[in-house]
């Protein structure tokens, strides 16, 4: 009886160890708390609005904030879609620690066209 209990305990221990080993061999190295991904998350769009140039072109005004302790660089990507037409603008930005910057991005699409059927996507890479 003790032999069966001993063998069942060894079997359970092997199954647990196998599960631990398999879970440790993930697809990649886990990120440290100060990874680039988390650093990029500290750089974010706080607010935005749309406006028009005197010629009627769409302007996307953004306020980008850095909530980190270090200066951060990123790429602001804004995509505007109107009736199947896509226009994308990118801008390299640098924001000092705990500061905000404002950007104004002008598109060829008119504000009027955008207000009728436009879509806006924005991200920081």
Structure at a glance:
The chain has 125 residues and is an alpha+beta fold. It has one domain: Immunoglobulins (Immunoglobulin-like), CATH 2.60.40. It is 29% helix and 48% strand.
Structure write-up:
With 125 residues, this protein is α+β, with helices and mostly antiparallel strands. The protein has one domain (36-124): Immunoglobulin-like, CATH 2.60.40.10. Helices cover 29% and strands 48% of the residues. It contains 3 helices and 6 strands. It has helices at 2-24, 36-41, 111-117; strands spanning 43-52, 57-66, 72-82, 85-95, 100-110, 118-124. A 3-stranded antiparallel beta sheet has the order 1-2-5. Strands 4-3-6 form a 3-stranded antiparallel beta sheet. A hairpin with a 4-residue loop joins strand 1 and strand 2 (57-66). It is elongated, with a radius of gyration of 26 Å. The N and C termini lie far apart (63 Å). Residues 20-35 have low confidence and may be disordered.
